[in-house]
Amino acid sequence: MIHEEGRLLMTPGPTALPPDVREAMSRPISNPDVEVGFTAQYRSILEKLAAVYGTDDEVLVLGGEGILGLEASVASLIAPGEEVLCLANGLYGEGFADFVEMHGGEPVLHRVPSGTAFEVEAVASLVEERDFAAATMVHCETPTGVLNDLAEVLGLLRDAGVLTVVDAVSSLAGTAVSVDRIDVCLGASQKCLSSPPGLTTLSVSDRAWDEIDATEQHTFYTSLEPWRGIDLEGDEAVLLPYTHLVSNLYALEASLDRFLEEGRERVFERHEDVAELCRARGREIGLEPFPPSESACSPTVTAFAVDGRAVEIQGRLEREHDVVVATGLGDLADDVVRVGHMGYNADRERVERTMDALEAVVGS
Q1: 103 within domain boundaries
Q2: Are residues 117 and 180 in the same domain?
């Protein structure tokens, strides 16, 4: 890989951008509403995105940071008064409940401790007791570096006829995601795809579209409904629901090309490799990953427990070593340091430099 001199951005999104992605973003602007050639390119981007997702479901790209997908999925699927099961073992899992309430639904929050797996039996009991319109959950809880194994729970919910919405923003394109069991699977440009912030990606199942069609829409920008049935088959200029972020789309296509050229299995192996390196180096300097179970650690981000030193460590890393990492969020804001090793940053040289700097700061 080509490495820039100087500053090293190792946060869990946004990530550093590969040179070819930056170059793609600098291309002359197209006007999708009037330029014939854009339709074919946009169709190609969606085909490549579907290949990265590994799905035959329809895929969408919305103009907005990844959080747009979380709200839009709730706004599009949930009617006022409907109950939604919100599975949470972290900050973002709990955040889904806020969106449900905001759009008139009734969240039923099933909370378990961070790093603890969701028990299928407990979820099954809730599903038997209540009539849920949908269930929400997070694959990778970025604030704590936890990767949730959702396969069994997703299978249970599908068998029960409950629509599933999964925040895979920090895992998609970095590790395997059970997209075939998910009705709405959410991603974002600035994480494992190493594209600029600004685009939300989604896969939407036929079941989800049926529900979206049946739900009265009270929003526009945070609704998926306007994206339903856009004709991209011909070569005529296409009228999208709003002016898309064309430069971001160019960058996204370059990122998708990088993923597809390297190949899914190799990409996932690379992420596992650097994650193991990051955790091993951390333990060597006396830092333990925040989730104690190795199987719960994400291959895209590692959170180290630092007991009240996170802000100090973050500041010194940037000032003294030109390495930028993230602290924790919420109650863990000063107790966790997070190293993002996703996408372009899933690279041994970058992780080694980051951990060398962390060792120098922690050991002094």
Answers
A1: yes
A2: yes
Strand 106-111: give its sheet, edge to edge: 58-63, 199-204, 184-188, 163-167, 132-138, 83-88, 106-111
| Residue 245 sits in the same domain as residue 268 | no
CB 48 within 8 Å of CB 256: yes
Positive or negative: CA dihedral 177, 188, 27, 234: positive
Contact 183, 204 (CB under 8 A): yes
| pLDDT band, very low/low/confident/very high, at 5 (cuts 50, 70, 90) | low
Domain boundary residue, one of 242, 259, 276: 259
Q: How far is 344 from 105, CA to CA, in rounded Å?
A: 38
Residue finishing a domain among 259, 293, 316: 259
Rg of the Cα atoms in the chain: 20
Residues 37 and 154 in one domain: yes
Which residues are CB-neighbours of 48 under 8 A, at least 6 positions away? 253, 256, 257, 260
What is the distance between the alpha carbons of residues 183 and 57, in angstroms, rounded to a whole number? 9
Same domain for 314 and 172? no
pTM assigned to the model:
0.95
Q: What range does the domain containing 127 cover?
A: 19-259
Instruction: Tell me whether residue 192 is exposed, middle or buried, using C-beta atoms within 10 angstroms of its C-beta: 0 to 12, 13 to 18, 19 or more.
Output: buried
**Could you count the other beta carbons within 10 Å of the beta carbon of residue 73?**
29
Distance CA 349, CA 28 (A): 33
pLDDT confidence of residue 39: 87
Q: What is the CATH number of the domain that holds 227?
A: 3.40.640.10
Number of domains in the chain: 2
pLDDT at 2 over 60: no
- pLDDT confidence bin for 21, thresholds 50/70/90: very high
